[in-house]
Specification:
3 domains, alpha/beta, 434 Repressor (Amino-terminal Domain), 12 helices, Rossmann fold, elongated, 4-stranded parallel β-sheet
């Protein structure tokens, strides 16, 4: 048990204990100029930080002494349209105004580039759309570097994206009379963390609505086993499938056709992170779209606050995801 470390307290934890906003915690602990904060509030924040053992992140410390730094932005090997590059572009411009450099690191099988970047660049923070895993996560954790991703504590304004999307998908399918659901994942190891991320949200939503545990299946990306997987689901009473991406949903649709079944009559199919091809699949694919502008605004605001430059108000994440209703459900 000696090798297991308790999660490091976050700024959100301090804010909750002191009954203030995370921005106020940043103002107090980083001595941000131009803010009027009462002595009582300042004392409450410092006492909460001491009680929790919280310390300002490396970024704030570096900036406080006038040093510039590097933020790593991890780009995963998944299809999210222009979202990833748009987030990176906006972050680059916002951080550059404060002398901070954004270094793009494209995900690799072994995470070696992130490991090397942590050792060579000594980054003040690491940000990504989805949680890190494997060697990259180990390196960042060992270096005690702040990590920001969708669903992390720093992005509390976004909420837990997997839970939001899980509820959207399950609510829609339940409204169509479905109760026994399956989850379709691709047989690509690099995409496994993404599949697990969406699955966690679906499980919570299903449990809250009294549904059985979703059945999980893996399909070859070339569709060679898709018909067999689909037949197995239908034989088990599954009536709707949530795929880990639109691309995997297309493989499921292929399997339905090869099995001589109909969509959605025999098996409904739903994707996520709606792409343009979903509109011309057969049948057109129901999916969940992510709003790039909302994600960019919230991500940039969170990153800047974590680095000691909080805005006066946090952008809303109310429209971060929306249902794209088509014929496959």
């Amino acid at each position: 048990m000696g090798g297991i470390r308790a999660p490091r307290p976050t700024k959100v934890d301090v804010a909750r204990l002191a009954n203030v906003s995370p921005a106020t915690v940043t103002y107090v602990l980083n001595n941000v100029a131009g803010q009027t904060i009462s002595a009582q509030t300042t004392a409450a924040v410092r006492a909460a930080a001491k009680q929790l053992g919280y310390r300002p992140n490396l970024a704030a410390r570096n900036l406080a002494v006038g040093a510039s730094g590097v933020v790593l932005y991890i780009v995963p090997r998944i299809t999210l349209g222009e979202l990833l590059l748009e987030v990176g572009s906006r972050l680059t411009a916002a951080l550059a105004r404060h002398g901070v450099v954004l270094s793009l690191q494209f995900e690799t099988d072994d995470g070696r580039n992130v490991v090397d970047a942590v050792a060579d660049l000594n980054p003040i923070a690491v940000t990504s759309v989805f949680p890190l895993s494997g060697a990259a996560l180990d390196a960042v954790t060992a270096a005690d570097i702040p990590q920001i991703h969708l669903g992390s504590a720093q992005l509390h304004a976004m909420g837990a994206l997997h839970l939001t999307i899980g509820e959207l998908r399950v609510d829609h399918l339940v409204s169509r009379g479905h109760r026994k659901l399956a989850v379709a994942n691709a047989d690509v190891p690099a995409l496994r963390p993404l599949g697990e991320y969406w699955l966690a949200g679906l499980r919570v939503a299903a449990e809250q609505r009294g549904l059985p545990e979703p059945t999980v299946g893996t399909l070859a990306t070339d569709g060679s086993d898709a018909a067999d997987v689909v037949r197995g689901w239908v034989a088990d009473g599954v009536t709707a499938v949530c795929a880990q991406s639109d691309e995997t949903a297309f493989v499921v649709l292929h399997g339905i056709r090869r099995a001589g079944l109909r969509c959605p009559e025999d098996l409904a199919v739903m994707g996520v992170v709606a792409g343009t091809l979903g509109a011309v699949s057969e049948p057109p694919l129901t999916s969940v779209a992510l709003d790039a502008e909302t994600i960019v605004d919230v991500s940039v605001a969170a990153m800047m606050a974590e680095l000691g430059y909080p805005s006066e108000s946090e952008p809303s994440s109310a429209n971060v995801a929306r249902l794209i209703l088509r014929a496959s459900t």
